[in-house]
Write a structure and sequence with these properties.
The protein has one domain: Umud Fragment, subunit A (Ribbon). 11% of the residues lie in helices and 45% in strands. It is built from 1 helix and 7 strands. β5 and β6 form a beta hairpin.
Length: 100
């Protein structure tokens, strides 16, 4: 996905990025095509309820942190699906703004 690659490149360079992700798994919180600002984040600064860009099973998801236990975060979407647990270190960035 082009937006994911753009986001990863900027975030790994320490920059805040703006992308327009597509898809429906975050509808109600992030609509397909909305302008999303994602900032680099320290793993320990990620909290339950945060929307994050996270490495997941060889790909990347823009999903919500549903629970946190120590170094592990439970990731899910905004329409009821729970993906599973990942290490905090898998988080690449945190959503800081969503605009039309």
């Amino acid at each position: 996905m082009g937006w994911v690659n753009d986001a990863r490149a900027g975030l790994t360079a320490g920059r805040t990025v703006q992308v327009r992700p597509t898809g429906g798994s975050m509808r109600g919180r992030i609509e397909s095509g909305q302008l999303v600002t994602i900032a680099p984040v320290a793993p320990l600064a990620v909290n339950v309820g945060d929307a994050v860009l996270v490495a997941w099973r060889g790909g990347f998801l823009l999903h919500i942190v549903k629970d946190a236990k120590g170094d592990q975060l439970l990731i899910g979407n905004n329409v009821g699906k729970i993906n599973g647990w990942v290490a905090r270190s898998a988080v690449i960035g945190k959503v800081v703004a969503v605009e039309d």
